[in-house]
Amino acid sequence: MDKKKRKEILDKLYKEKLIEFRQSLPFDENIFPKLFDYLDNELIIYGCNHTSLITETFLQKNGILNVIEVIEWLAKNGGYCDCEILANVEDLFDYLNPPKINTTPKKEVSKQKINSLETDFGFCIERVPSPWNLIETTATNSKEYFFQFGKNNNCTVNLHTHFSLFENDNDEHWINLWIDETNLNYNLENLTVERLKLGDYTVFIAKTKDWTPVKVWCANKKNSSWLLKMNTELSRHKGDIKELEKLLSSIL
Ligand SMILES: [Zn+2]
After folding, report:
1. Closest CA to 198 of 141, 131, 246
2. CA 88 – ligand 1 centroid, Å
3. Contact at 8 Å (CB) between 137 and 111?
4. How would DSSP label each residue in 100-120?
5. Which InterPro entries match (predicted)?
6. Report for 58-62, 190-194, 239-243: range of highest mean pLDDT
């Protein structure tokens, strides 16, 4: 039997089993994810006492009257008590994925490499210099852009349009941003801010001697509606800043 044929048969069997399963359900399939959420929360607080008491409470609260039938059905499917119902029965509803209830629609995000960019907020690059790549990510209502090079994402440069007003002269501002973004809050004695002038840009570099993350902000003196932020690492940041300089000089 060839692979394709075998797959067709397996698909058909799966579909038949699924129809049978759905027909066997003791109440609306869309209520099951709610039950599992409820169990998830209650079991954390009360634990399982080897009965299906929490499940029964849920049924009562949701006006489900065929309790005996439900409990029998759950047991038949591997759920003899509340913790087993969550552990063994929830997976049987994977076919509902994404669950039809209680979910906000998932954001569809797509990524693509682009070669040039001109935005309505005045960011323009016609040619992305090697070794950088420019990536456009598209979500439901928004597009975002970042530059990167190399295989790992250890160095990225993000284009930002929403940021708080600069307090360029205030080191503390950049230090606090570094702390906010890294969530690191100790061994900060050596946290320093350096400033560089690169063409039309003022570049702020926040780093420590103890931690890997290095944050670099590039503010364009002529256009304050966007800025570039580089995330890099202590061991490589000097080389990365050289590449950054190339990138900045390619922006029109
Ligand atoms: Zn249990």
Report:
1. 246
2. 11
3. yes
4. SSS-PPPPP-EEEEES-EE-T
5. DUF2695
6. 58-62
pLDDT mean over 63-80:
96
Phi and psi, residue 136, nearest 5°: -105, 125
Segment (H or E) for 232:
strand 227-233
Instruction: Supply the pLDDT for residue 26.
Output: 96
Using the mean position of ligand 1's atoms as its centre, give its distance from the Cα of residue 83 in Å: 4
Ligand 1 centroid vs 215 CA: distance in angstroms?
49
**How much helix, strand and coil, in percent to the nearest 5, is found in the chain?**
40, 20, 40
Q: What is the pLDDT of residues 14-50, one digit of tens each?
A: 889 999 999 999 999 999 999 999 999 999 888 999 9
Every domain of the chain and the residues it spans: 3-96, 110-250
Ligand 1 midpoint to CA 205 (Å): 54
